Amino acid sequence: MPGSHGPRPTMESIRHHVSRWSQQDLSTLAKTALVRLPRAVPMDALRITSREGPQPFRLDLPSRQAGRTIPLYVFIPPTTFPSPESGESTPDLGSYPVVMDYHGGGFYLGSCLEQAPFCARLCRELKAVVISVDYRMAPLDKFPAAIEDADDAVRALLDTTYTPGYQALRDGIAEFFRAHWFAALQAKATKDERRVDRVPTPPPLNINLDTTKIAFSGASSGGNIALNVGMHVPADLGFPDWPSPIPRDYSHPVALLLLYPALDLRQLPSERTRHERMPAVKPRKPGKQSLDDHLASTYVSRELAAHGRASPGLLDIATQLHPRAKILLILSGLDTLWEQSEAWDAKVRAEGRGADLKTMRYADRKHGWTTFPEVALNKEERRTRLEVLDECVKFTSLTWAGRDAVGVMEREDGDNVNAQGREKVSFEKARVDQEGDDVSVDSRDGDEQEGRDENVHPVTV
Hints:
The chain is of the alpha/beta class. It has a single domain, classed as 3-Layer(aba) Sandwich (Rossmann fold), CATH 3.40.50. Helix content is 31%, strand content 15%. The protein has an eight-stranded mixed β-sheet, sandwiched between helices. β8, α11 and β9 form a beta-alpha-beta unit.
């Protein structure tokens, strides 16, 4: 039976990858290594950073480009399989809702595995399949590569005519279930049964993804992508009309979970407003670009940064936001992206979609704090991190149930954070909880750091 990891890269693919990196200038190579290496998260580390699980498996999804695949990290809810003595030939897998997640990192760094605690929590609580998309990043792949990969993944979920990916996605998930059913049977078998190969091989399975219950989530640049999939973009700047991969006539509510998103890439990191309580930036020599400015520019040119797929916050809400989108917006105040999100919040309300937007403001939180390991957070940061995860679960669950998630949460949440909810609270008026701040870990300026019969003996993985 197959394992849970993707295929090993071929020598040809390795040579191709090395060749592409060798075409980058030394300055870009050095700067990319400087910011990426400290954030590298090996798969085995998830047993520490995401102890409760489930742990993801990798599935390589065919893309629109022949021969190229998009790595997906897929989280599956714990599942009970029938044992041989039960007389059941196949498990009742039911139908799984789907959350598709996009990691942060400014489009030039970051990893799906950083999002594992968040994705695993959604998987457990919502009993959903959660798919984290390992989209292409700069400096090797420039705009709109990341958005194209996001589109391909959404089409593989929703579009039955999308031949490269629709069936491949379902087959890959079904094969994972089958492999783990076989592993569970082997673990339960006696030593003699295993030695004489008497452990039954499970039959092929079918997986049913419930496409009436979908959600898209992302932090920072991932929030940019999560909003992108819910927007229709008209022809502009040399690009043709670019519709949302969610069909316009899709009739079910779609939850968009946007955590401190980057909505306007026209601003380089150094051009964003910094709150006075954020660490000061070391002055640069005239004509010298900051590290973040340099790497941000390797993703999208200044001209194309104004395109709606690069900066979805610029798009018209009334005509271009999907009519069934329901949005949870999480803001962190000690973050250069706060201002963009506040402007977008006001725009959504001014253009008539305020009833579909729930905004929660954490004025004393740093950019990316919900993705930091618990050991790097103080007591209050850990509390609000868990609170955000709870709110994401609640918002998605209410949306899938067909309820008014925004209205319900506005009534139930109250003002459990001084700068939270729809109330506009200034930095100066927002409470600053000093408890444990001496052990807080600083982010990099918010610039994208970011029941069965008991005789059946079921087996569970």
